Amino acid sequence: EGGLAVLPCHLSPQELKNSWKMLYHKTAVRWERHGGRYCRITVGSGTCALSGPMLAQAHKETHMVLEVEYSGVLKTARSMIPRAMVQNADLRHGDFSLRIEPLQRDDVGEYEALVRYGTATLHCQVALGVVKGRRRWSPMGGPGKTFWLHCNSSHPGKPVGVQWFHNDSLVPISGRFVSLSGALSIYRPTMSDMGPWRCNLAYSDGTNVSATYNLQILGFSGPASSVVYAAAGSSANLPCTLNHNPSASGIQGVKARWSNLTGGYLGDWGTSRNGDFTLHVPEVGPGDAGQYRCDVSIRSTTITKEVTLAIIMVTPSIKGPVAEGSHLMLICSLTHPQGHEHFQWRHIDSAYSNRNSAEATSRDLGTQSFLLGSTLELPRVSQKDTGTWECSVHGPEGRLGAVEYGLEITGIVFPVAPLPPSPCPSYTILH
């Protein structure tokens, strides 16, 4: 209930080979429902569909579900809008399957499809039942962790064929996926394994059973490793957030532990944080830069997120107030560069801000001579240079962070009346 149901109706490969030309002319499809019957399939939670001899004697009151006319006009029952659909692109490939999402308990019943293409017709009968169960969350895979999907039917026989689909694509039974007696094992599940999984069981008497299960993976929001850029003296938040609140799914006892790879243990957090274990650092300095690790324990599995804290700093060549006419260099440096950053200087409280902006791109942050980053040189400091300067760090994804430096100049005389503007001072960027 609440998942995706696919009611199969399609031509066999041989029928498709003989009829593909007719499919490109006139094709009409009509799906109807005749009452209801409950079937039992267990895949944790999901949906099931039966066809063949196991079709029950159902109540024969007929309801139109969906119809595609020869002209291409689509008609859908009001109660099925927008949940029921057929893939128009699939009609030309002999696939007339009905898709219902999200599935509701009232959708239970026997469905029948009548397909007319060219001079030929095709009938399909499928009984649909709803399996009601609790959604399961699997933690992202740790070493040696395997997750199992079980597909069981109330059919008395043993399946002669089993197929598994993920997001409607056939799953190759190799590598991380192993099929055994109607069950599928997924070794070390990842975020890419999220979504609908469907099993198809075929029996020797012609019965086909289909069940769908929506698999959710409990992992981190965002990448498993990230870099946080922060100005020296500012606060920083190191992210460690799960993509779902584990308490909402009944998962208890989730704990997180933060550690600094150079300084050791930092603290533990419990489930009261609703899946958000972000580490807040009130004021960062050069000594706080480095690599951090957040280990989250979910039942018997531990998943890890690594965060690098990179500090942006400005070091002046002259400490304290600067005398007018002095030669000053402002050195913008970045700890733990990733090799793609470049720097931009800006006089943010000057009327000449746009004219004074300059950008310098580091040619090679991987070598020692460029680790200090971009240097702004003021050959002769003037009154126009006083105020706040900003050094910002940029990467391919945009602005990453910035640091501000307040420049004080001694010997400034504030005029009583406005003076005519003086020529813009010159600035040099060294890198």
Description:
Interacts with MHC class II (MHC-II); selectively recognizes stable complexes of peptide and MHC-II. Interacts with FGL1 (via the Fibrinogen C-terminal domain). It comes from Crocodylus porosus. 4% of the residues lie in helices and 46% in strands. It is built from 3 helices and 35 strands. Strands 2, 4, 5, 6, 9, 10, 11, 14, 15, 18 and 19 form an 11-stranded mixed beta sheet that branches. The chain is elongated.
Summarize the structure.
It contains three helices and 35 strands.
Form type: elongated
Say which CATH homologous superfamily of the largest domain is assigned.
Immunoglobulins
Strand content: over 45%
Judging by the overall fold, what is the CATH architecture of the largest domain? Answer: Sandwich
Query: Which structural class matches the secondary elements?
Result: mainly beta
CATH class of the largest domain: Mainly Beta
Runs in which pLDDT lies below 50 for 5 or more consecutive residues are 36-51, 53-59, 131-136, 351-372, 412-417
Q: What is the secondary structure topology, with strand pairs?
A:
Blueprint: E1 5-7, H1 13-23, E2 27-34, E3 41-42, E4 46-51, E5 62-68, E6 74-76, E7 84-85, H2 88-91, E8 98-100, E9 109-117, E10 120-131, E11 137-139, E12 146-150, E13 152-153, E14 161-166, E15 169-170, E16 177-180, E17 183-187, E18 195-202, E19 208-218, E20 225-231, E21 236-238, E22 255-260, E23 264-269, E24 279-281, E25 290-298, E26 301-316, E27 322-323, E28 328-334, E29 342-347, H3 353-356, E30 358-360, E31 375-378, E32 387-395, E33 398-407, E34 409-410, E35 428-430
Parallel strand pairs: 11-19, 20-26, 27-34
Antiparallel strand pairs: 1-8, 2-5, 2-9, 3-13, 4-10, 4-19, 5-6, 7-8, 9-10, 12-17, 14-15, 14-18, 16-17, 18-19, 21-24, 22-23, 22-25, 25-26, 26-28, 28-31, 29-30, 29-32, 31-35, 32-33
